[in-house]
Amino acid sequence: MTEADIHDEGRRLLQDAFSRGRAIGRADWRRIRATVLKNWILDATNRSFDERRWGVETFTQFLGLFPDVVRVDSSVHPPMVELLSEEEELPAEGLPTPETAEQLSRFDQIRRDLWIAVLDFSSGLTYVMDADGEAIGVRDSNDPRPHLPTIDREVWSKWRQAFYQAQLPRTPDRWVPALQGWLSEGLPSASLPAPLRGQWNGELKRDVFQRLRTWFDQQGLPVPETAIVTITPDQASSTPDVRRLREFAHQTIEGMTRAELEMLQLPLNAVLRAQRDRRVGE
Known about the structure:
The chain has eleven helices and seven strands. It is mainly α. The chain folds into two domains: about 5-90, Nucleotidyltransferase, domain 5 (2-Layer Sandwich); about 100-225, no CATH class. The strands form three sheets. Strands 1-3-2 form a three-stranded antiparallel sheet. The protein has a two-stranded antiparallel sheet with strand order 4-7. A two-stranded antiparallel ribbon has the order 5-6. The radius of gyration is 23 Å and the shape is extended. It starts with a helix and ends with a helix.
């Protein structure tokens, strides 16, 4: 492969990464943190991407090889990378809508209006699809527009019961009372231990998606590409609850003594991520 071919390969990797940002609906898809951009390139290359292939040591140096494609803002850390090339040069197709519920990843979220339309069985509203493809709640149950498949209380109970039956044999004894209380008392998912909460939310997402897919099939319509919103790891780490936890952790660490700091145990993935971000910023 010639030097020109290698340069074109790098240019294509960058453009494809920005194209992913556009496809998942990021409003700021033309301006992305360097750490996120590199992660997307690593994902696209099955983690085989290596800056040394282009004769440089850091990702920032790699970006510097393409001044006609990106502009790097190193005044912030990690640096921000802005796409300079024309939008028409990027692939137009978006990410495929999952064909089955099992194909949903933990970063896939169902569009909020559709999510509410399926799960809001207690408000008395009827959810219909308007002319713009949005799910809206109306008081008239005879509204002629297509009615979305809102569950009833019986279906809700069946979903919870099925989750309970599947999890009970594999749940540690110390978590069983919380799981039982969640079911018998109709408690919210926040009452579950964190691992079970994540599993329940994943199951619920798959159940809702399958119900929507069946409904769209019955209507003779494809599932809209916008029905699934993919949240990147970077976005997931910026939700309000995560920010509050991070602020609390910072405040706690600032008040710790040397002895307490020496006892502090940090997740290996977090340590490696911090080291990676520092290298990207070099």
